[in-house]
C-alpha cells in the first residue's frame, strides 16, 4: 500500500504537516517526509515516531502515490527533475507554490495535479485554502485533498484563472490585515498615553470580536449599528470611504503585476 509523501519542511510544510498529523487527517504510519536539512525533522519524528523521514526525494517518490510539494517555488522544478523517473500515472502531485501554473507542472508530469494556496491562518485552524485540480484528478482524489485541508481550516475550490486575485484575499491577507491594524493601533498610541503593546492588544481583541460579528451580520449592518448619524464614528468612516478604495485598487494592481512577472519568469524556466 503506497504512502503519502511530503517534500519540504519549511514555514508552510511545518504548519501543514503538523496540522494534518495533529488533526488525525493522516495516519503517521502512512507518512513519509523529506526535506533538504533533515535535522529539522527531528522534533516531528519525536512527536510522531511511526513517520518515515528521508533526505532522498527519489526514495519518497518510490514509496508514495500522493506527493505534496512544500518546497520554495524556485525549487519545485529541481524536485520534479529529481523524482520524475519514479512517477507514473497513479501519482498525484499536490503543490502550493504561488505563481507556478498547473501548465508549468504538466510540462514536467502528465498525471494528476492539484494546486493549493494555503494560508498561515491554518495554524489556528481558521481561514481558507484555495484549491484547483487538473482534468486528470477524479472525484476521489479531489475529495482527498479537499478533506485534508478542510481539517485545518476551510476550503474553496476555484478556477486557476482567479487564483491570483483570490489569493490576495486569503493567503496574502493575513499580512495585509496585520499591517492595517498595526498602523491603526499606532495612531491610537501616538495620540494617547497608551503603550504600543496596550494599543495593539485592544485592537487585536476588537478585531476578533469584529470578525465574529461579521459572521452574524453584514458589514453595512455592523457599521450602521456602531455609527450613529452625525456621530464620531461616522466622521471616521467618511475618511476611510474616501481613501480606502483607491488604496486597495493600487494594492491589487501591484500584487497582480508581481504575479505576472513571476509567472513570466517561471514560464521561461519551465519551457527551457
Ligand atoms: N508563506 C505563506 O503564507 C504561503 C502561502 C501560500 C503558499 N506559499 C508557498 O509555499 C511555498 C513554501 O514556502 P515556505 O514559506 O514554506 O518556504 P520555506 O520556509 O523556505 O520552506 C521551504 C522548505 O523546502 C525545503 N527544500 C528546499 N529545496 C528542497 C529540495 N530540493 N528537497 C527537499 N526539500 C527542499 C527547504 O529546506 P531547508 O530547510 O534546507 O531550507 C525548506 O525546509 C512557496 O512556494 C510559497 O509560494 C506560502
Give a short summary of the structure.
With 272 residues, the chain is of the alpha/beta class. It has two domains: 3-158, Rossmann fold (3-Layer(aba) Sandwich), CATH 3.40.50.720; 173-267, no CATH class. It has helices spanning 11-23, 42-47, 57-63, 76-83, 102-106, 139-150, 163-170, 173-190, 196-216, 219-226, 232-271, and strands at residues 3-7, 31-34, 52-54, 64-69, 92-95, 112-117, 128-133, 154-157.
Characterize the structure shown:
This protein has 272 residues and is an alpha/beta fold. It folds into two domains: 3-158, Rossmann fold; 173-267, no CATH class. The chain contains eleven helices and eight strands. The chain has helices spanning 11-23, 42-47, 57-63, 76-83, 102-106, 139-150, 163-170, 173-190, 196-216, 219-226, 232-271, and strands spanning 3-7, 31-34, 52-54, 64-69, 92-95, 112-117, 128-133, 154-157. It has an eight-stranded mixed β-sheet, sandwiched between helices. Strand 4, helix 4 and strand 5 (92-95) form a beta-alpha-beta unit. Helix 8 crosses helix 9. The longest helix is centred in the C-terminal third of the chain and has 40 residues, at 232-271. The radius of gyration is 22 Å and the shape is elongated. The two termini are 36 Å apart. The mean pLDDT is 96. NADP nicotinamide-adenine-dinucleotide phosphate (NAP) is lined by residues 7-13, 34-37, 40, 57, 70-73, 75, 78-79, 96-98, 117-118, 120, 171. NADP nicotinamide-adenine-dinucleotide phosphate binds next to helix 1 and helix 4.
Amino acid at each position: 500500500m503506497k504512502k503519502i509523501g511530503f517534500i519540504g519542511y519549511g514555514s508552510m510544510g511545518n504548519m501543514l504537516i503538523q496540522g494534518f498529523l495533529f488533526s488525525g487527517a493522516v495516519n503517521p504510519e502512512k507518512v513519509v517526509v523529506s526535506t533538504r536539512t533533515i535535522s529539522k525533522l527531528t522534533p516531528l519524528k519525536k512527536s510522531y515516531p511511526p513517520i518515515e523521514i528521508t533526505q532522498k526525494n527519489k526514495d519518497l517518490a518510490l514509496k508514495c502515490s500522493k506527493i505534496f510539494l512544500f518546497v520554495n517555488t524556485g525549487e519545485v522544478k529541481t524536485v520534479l527533475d529529481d523524482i520524475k523517473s519514479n512517477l507514473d500515472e497513479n501519482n498525484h502531485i499536490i503543490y502550493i507554490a504561488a505563481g507556478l501554473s498547473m501548465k508549468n507542472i504538466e510540462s514536467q508530469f502528465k498525471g494528476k495535479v492539484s494546486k493549493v494556496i494555503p494560508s498561515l491562518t491554518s495554524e489556528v485552524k481558521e481561514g481558507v485554502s484555495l484549491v484547483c485540480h487538473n482534468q486528470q484528478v477524479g472525484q476521489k482524489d479531489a475529495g482527498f485533498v479537499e478533506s485534508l485541508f478542510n481539517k485545518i481550516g476551510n476550503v474553496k475550490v476555484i478556477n486557476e484563472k482567479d487564483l491570483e486575485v483570490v489569493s490576495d484575499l486569503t493567503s496574502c491577507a493575513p499580512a495585509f490585515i496585520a499591517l492595517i491594524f498595526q498602523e491603526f493601533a499606532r495612531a491610537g498610541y501616538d495620540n494617547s498615553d497608551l503603550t504600543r503593546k496596550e494599543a495593539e492588544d485592544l485592537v487585536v481583541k476588537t478585531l476578533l470580536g469584529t470578525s465574529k460579528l461579521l459572521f452574524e451580520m453584514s458589514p453595512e449592518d455592523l457599521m450602521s449599528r456602531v455609527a450613529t448619524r452625525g456621530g464620531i464614528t461616522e466622521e471616521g468612516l467618511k475618511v476611510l470611504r474616501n481613501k480606502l478604495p483607491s488604496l486597495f485598487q493600487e494594492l491589487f494592481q501591484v500584487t497582480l503585476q508581481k504575479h505576472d512577472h513571476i509567472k513570466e519568469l517561471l514560464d521561461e524556466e519551465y519551457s527551457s
